[in-house]
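Hey, can you fold this one?
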Amino acid sequence: MDKRDVTEFFNRLAPHWDEELMVDPDKINRILDAAGVHPGVRVLDVACGTGVLFPFYTQRHVANVTAVDIAPEMAKIAAAKATGPIHVLCGDIEAMEGAGDFDCCVVYNAFPHFPDPPRLIEGLAAWLKPRGRLTVAHGMSIQALNQHHAGAAAQVSMGLLPAPAMCDLFGKWFHVDTAVSDAEKYIVSGTRL
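Sure. Predicted structure:
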């Protein structure tokens, strides 16, 4: 999988992304609870897309959010929605250096689009404070997601790892305390060692 293909794919989808996106507030709130997103925290939103999580961050009174997306068209739409403590950057999170000052990092509905999962996890650890929390989550089951990605997204998706494999991947840098993979959602979350 080539990151240029990922960027082009999501640039093409960006104009109609919000129209086709199904948002389940209860599910998102469960994910953000597991992610430790609460008042006063600093959040890194990786592969933020068009900013679907922005209203939820605002409702939770976070201190600030740095939202990053590799696709310029996605980032442009997200930036237009960003208010208050939310700042959007267009770029490759894996090419940026983390300062180790975020409380939470959320990768929502995006993990399969990164070609080197161990490299990504290691890089995200550098963005977090000691005991900072990384959460990889999807708003559907692993089976539904992998089936969905088998279509048009096949060239830009590695598939989602089963939760036990994701926990193993986290293990070098994080203590995993949440691993949920059911018919509705997928959440793996842990604190930085």
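The mean pLDDT is 94. Let me know if you want another pass with a different chain boundary.
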